[in-house]
Specification:
Distance between the termini: 40 Å
Radius of gyration: 13 Å
Number of helices: 0
Number of strands: 11
Length: 115
């Protein structure tokens, strides 16, 4: 059974930092491209960061320079370090694992940034 479990979401003031974690099980983690998406109220879910099996990373422009995605293959965990948080970063953050056409999602973790 595939499980992706996010953690680390919280209420934080603007300018603060959070570190999200996503622990995966039931997949060959090292082969998967891992990604973080977010969905704000009334908006579509958007891809914000991804890291390939070889460690290449990509970010959406709105988080470049503030967010860092990383992975620990030994622990089957992907992280999202979020610095200089803004109120517009408020959303539910979802972890995603992709291998070929197979996608798996976590349940999401809420991040709220107050001004």
């Amino acid at each position: 059974q595939v499980r992706l479990v996010e953690s680390g979401g919280d209420l934080v003031q603007a300018g603060g930092s959070l570190r999200l974690s996503c622990a995966a099980s039931g997949i060959i983690f090292s082969l998967n491209t891992m990604a973080w998406f977010r969905q704000a109220p009334g908006k579509q879910r958007e891809l914000i960061a991804q890291i390939t099996s070889t460690g290449s990373t990509n970010y959406v422009d709105s988080v470049k320079g503030r967010f860092t995605i990383s992975r620990d293959n030994a622990k089957g965990t992907v992280f999202l370090q979020m610095n200089s948080l803004k109120p517009e970063d408020t959303a539910v953050y979802y972890c995603n694992a992709r291998l070929g056409l197979t996608l798996n999602w976590g349940q999401g973790t809420q991040v709220t940034v107050s001004s």
